[in-house]
């Protein structure tokens, strides 16, 4: 322990001496500033402001490089900043284009770049800070326009060509001048920011055209040179001079304004302190604007002295700050030494206390942990014993359930086999052949066969789970084997016009396969292909011999395919694709994969414009165990005729009609099971005109037909039976139609949900045909009673009555519309249908279903009721009443009135 403490102290003393000198360097933010100002005043003002800002920030290490207006030197300075890996670079470009490449290099090196005063070409920099040179040009132009009283002729003296401030100031200046027709830029002199570039060209221009009112120069130096040139020609008082910069120095813009040389100058701020603040925000990855504009103002005789005083005070404050910074640095050094001493003493104290506490804690902790570990160890042992006991109980329970399941499945096979045997005998019975009963017997046989196959699949699944399958492979000509299996499907292919082909170049190709298991694989794959391939589609089997001693068997169809994101799940037990609305056990493909794996082969699925299953098997028998090979070839078990246990094949169930269609009620069956639909059609078509829908168009078909009654399943293709019933009952066009739910769902919740959706009867499968027929008859009888009520109370229906509430609402609304238009001779059935929001055909069918007469007769009856009221009032004669109610003549009105009331209008009026 002593050696450990000694080592800690030595390490602390060694590192402590480096803290004060290295910590500051490590924590410093390195900022490189490439200066390119062309005058001492600018350079002094810019450097002073950025240095003062840096002195207020001890964490900043600022390096300033002055290029002295040399582009090459400025590029070298920036390259050096990059190689020294500074944190941020601030650049004041001499020219835009030459510096673009080196700035992009800095950005690629991960060093942010702040461009100050002048922009580079392109946008590959972090941020820009400077005055808005376009706005400076505009301000100068506005100042000239607002103060001009003379000719309006102007000379512009621009900065150096290629300089962004020169270009932008000219752009802004011209924008405003060109908007005022009285003002004109007579000449433009291309200066280079220096005085000498102005004198000669300006003198020549003034000699030729002395009628100049204003000269706008892009900086104060060129403006001063312009004044001096004009003075040599005696024009200095006639012309007014505007400059840019407004430096507070000898011969600076402010002094020139005060002395009357310049009429005005526009402040161009250096922004040194703002540049450093923005650079630090870039380093700290704070959110900043890409373009940061400094504010500017016009300085003339009105404010020159005020601005000068303010700048002088700023300079004085900067000197005070510098002296205070020096004092602060002295205090920092003293604080650093004292801080190190305090740290050292604190460290010793912490070490001593830590060692004391650690020794006490260690003793107590070791004792507690030992006891805790003993308790945990005992708990783990107890829990492990409990888990083992629970696992044994669960294994026994699971085994018992599986044995019961397997035994029960075997028990199912016996009665199903007996049923199928008797049904087959009935099919062969000469007394039944040729009668309508033969189709029903075949339907029993088909569904018994399907149930037997499902039970066999469940037993195979149990064997696969217990790994009880033993491969019995024999040498088989795969082409002949495939043809034998395909023979069972060719009848269905012909019936549905499906192109069903086998492609194999080597018909003598032999493989070692278990014919019984491979038969089930073929059957499952072909069953799926026929199930999901539409009529007139294509199914093919291709046998391809490969160079790598393998054979690939391709099962390809033009069906609906399988979604890409579900391909990896198709071989999982009980999986069902999202686009599969067919009934299936979900274990067929799983069994197929397991049977192929028993052959040491593989099976994969591709799904593009249909589905393609590819089985890969090895040639020869070296990959099999000796016990898995047999010499005697086993014949295939006969596959039931075609695949009627998995496909929707419509049996021809027909019964002779005993009533004509005009005498029958209409019945709509909404069911997606084709066999059940055909069965119901066969049994109900004698008494009803039967329509059917699989659910995808149920509501549309119901509204089109307006049937007398509807039978509806719950589990359908699109909407379920609850939704369909609710929508039909809410729709005014179909609310009167009785609905019977016929479903396998018999629990209390399902029945309650069905009744809540508005159905009139709820029957469960398996159902009694006689009960179904009686339910239909009863509902139609009740509808007839409701029709009788409406027929005899058609003009006295109470809206608040609970009997036939929705129909009452319809009748009440219809009668109100008719009564309001009873004296309108142009009112027709079409107008009524339009106001009720239904078609003319739907209105006719609904009114016929509710009150038993057509809508035209009903409108006439309402008119005749109104006529009876008018005759009683004795305010109009018979002819007036007839014409007011839209009858073509009084004679026709009298005939219609007598047909309804049994007496003529005249007799009725007299009796009143």
From TrEMBL:
Cross-referenced PANTHER family: HYBRID SIGNAL TRANSDUCTION HISTIDINE KINASE C, TWO-COMPONENT HISTIDINE KINASE
Modified-residue entries (4-aspartylphosphate), positions: 713
Cross-referenced InterPro entries: CheY-like_superfamily, HATPase_C_sf, HATPase_dom, His_kinase_dom, HisK_dim/P_dom, HisK_dim/P_sf, Homeodomain-like_sf, HTH_AraC
Segments crossing the lipid bilayer: 341-361
The protein's name in its UniProt record: histidine kinase
Residue runs in coiled coils: 366-393
EC number(s) given by UniProt: 2.7.13.3
SMART domains: HATPase_c, HisKA, HTH_ARAC, REC
């Amino acid at each position: 322990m002593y050696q450990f403490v000694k080592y800690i102290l030595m390490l602390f003393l060694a590192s402590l001496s480096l803290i004060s000198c290295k910590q500051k360097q490590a924590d410093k933010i390195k900022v490189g500033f490439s200066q390119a100002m062309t005058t001492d005043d600018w350079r002094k003002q810019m450097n002073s402001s950025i240095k003062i800002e840096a002195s207020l920030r001890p964490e900043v290490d600022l390096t300033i490089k002055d290029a002295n207006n040399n582009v090459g030197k400025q590029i070298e300075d920036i390259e050096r900043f990059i190689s020294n890996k500074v944190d941020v670079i601030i650049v004041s470009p001499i020219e835009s284009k030459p510096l673009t490449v080196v700035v992009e290099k800095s950005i690629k090196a991960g060093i942010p770049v702040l461009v100050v005063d002048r922009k580079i070409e392109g946008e590959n920099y972090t941020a820009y800070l400077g005055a808005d040179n376009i706005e400076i040009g505009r301000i100068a132009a506005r100042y000239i326009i607002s103060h001009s009283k003379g000719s309006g002729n102007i000379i512009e003296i621009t900065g150096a060509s290629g300089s962004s401030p020169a270009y932008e100031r000219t752009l802004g200046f011209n924008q405003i001048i060109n908007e005022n027709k009285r003002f004109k830029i007579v000449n433009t002199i291309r200066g280079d920011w220096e005085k000498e570039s102005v004198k000669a060209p300006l003198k020549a221009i003034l000699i030729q055209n002395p009628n100049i009112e204003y000269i706008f120069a892009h900086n104060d130096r060129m403006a001063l040179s312009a004044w001096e040139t004009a003075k040599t020609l005696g024009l200095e008082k006639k012309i007014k001079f505007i400059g840019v910069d407004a430096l507070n120095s000898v011969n600076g813009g402010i002094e020139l304004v005060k002395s009357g040389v310049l009429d005005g100058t526009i402040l161009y701020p250096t922004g040194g302190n703002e540049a450093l603040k923005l650079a630090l925000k870039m380093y700290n990855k704070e959110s900043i604007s890409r373009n940061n504009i400094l504010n500017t103002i016009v300085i003339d005789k009105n404010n020159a002295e005020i601005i000068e005083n303010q700048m002088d005070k700023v300079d004085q404050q900067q000197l005070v700050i510098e002296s205070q910074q020096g004092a602060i640095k002295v205090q920092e050094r003293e604080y650093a030494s004292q801080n190190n001493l305090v740290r050292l003493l604190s460290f010793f104290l912490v070490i001593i206390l830590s060692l004391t506490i650690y020794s006490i804690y260690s003793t107590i902790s070791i004792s507690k942990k030992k006891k805790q570990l003993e308790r945990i160890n005992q708990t783990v042992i107890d829990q492990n014993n409990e888990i083992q006991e629970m696992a044994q109980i669960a294994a026994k329970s699971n085994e018992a359930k599986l044995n019961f399941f397997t035994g029960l499945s075997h028990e199912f096979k016996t009665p199903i086999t007996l049923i199928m045997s008797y049904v087959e005998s009935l099919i062969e019975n000469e007394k039944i052949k040729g009668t309508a009963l033969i189709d029903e017997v075949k339907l029993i046989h088909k569904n018994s066969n399907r149930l037997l196959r499902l039970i066999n699949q469940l037993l195979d699944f149990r064997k696969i789970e217990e790994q009880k399958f033993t491969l019995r492979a024999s040498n088989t000509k795969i082409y002949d084997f495939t043809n034998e299996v395909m023979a069972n499907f060719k009848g269905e292919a012909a019936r549905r016009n499906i192109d069903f082909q086998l492609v194999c170049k080597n018909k003598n190709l032999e493989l070692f396969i278990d014919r019984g298991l491979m038969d089930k694989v073929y059957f499952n794959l072909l069953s799926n292909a026929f199930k999901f391939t539409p009529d007139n589609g294509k199914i093919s089997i291709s046998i391809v011999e490969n160079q790598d001693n393998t054979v690939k068997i391709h099962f390809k169809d033009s069906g609906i395919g399988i979604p890409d994101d579900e391909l990896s799940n198709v071989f999982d037990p009980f999986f069902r694709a999202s686009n599969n609305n067919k009934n299936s056990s979900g274990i067929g493909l799983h069994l197929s994969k397991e049977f192929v794996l028993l052959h040491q082969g593989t099976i994969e699925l591709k799904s593009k414009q249909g589905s393609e299953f590819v089985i890969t098997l090895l040639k020869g028998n070296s990959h099999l165990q000796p016990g898995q090979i047999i010499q005697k070839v086993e014949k295939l078990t006969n596959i039931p005729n075609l695949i009627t246990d998995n496909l929707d094949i419509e049996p021809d169930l027909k019964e002779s009609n005993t009533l004509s269609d005009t005498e029958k009620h209409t019945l709509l069956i909404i069911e997606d099971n084709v066999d059940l639909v055909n069965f119901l059609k066969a049994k109900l078509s004698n008494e009803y005109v039967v329509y059917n829908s699989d659910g995808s168009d149920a509501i549309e078909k119901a509204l089109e037909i307006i049937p007398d009654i509807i039978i509806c399943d719950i589990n359908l293709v699109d909407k379920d039976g609850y939704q369909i019933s609710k929508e039909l009952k809410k729709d005014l066009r179909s609310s009167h139609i009785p609905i019977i739910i016929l479903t396998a769902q018999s629990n209390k919740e399902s029945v309650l949900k069905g009744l809540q959706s508005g159905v009139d009867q709820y029957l469960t499968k398996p159902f009694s045909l006689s009960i179904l027929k009686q339910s239909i008859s009863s509902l139609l009888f009740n509808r007839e009673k409701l029709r009788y009520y409406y027929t005899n109370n058609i003009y006295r229906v109470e809206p608040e009555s609970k009997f036939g509430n929705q129909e009452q609402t319809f009748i009440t609304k219809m009668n109100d519309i008719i009564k309001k238009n009873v004296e309108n001779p142009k009112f027709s059935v079409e107008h009524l249908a339009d106001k009720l929001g239904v078609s003319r055909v739907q209105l006719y069918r609904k009114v016929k279903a509710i009150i038993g007469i057509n809508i035209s007769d009903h409108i006439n009856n309402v008119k005749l009721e109104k006529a009876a009221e008018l005759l009683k009032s004795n305010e109009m004669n018979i002819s007036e009443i007839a014409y007011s109610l839209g009858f073509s003549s009084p004679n026709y009105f009298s005939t219609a009135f007598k047909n309804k009331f049994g007496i003529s209008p005249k007799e009725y009026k007299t009796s009143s």
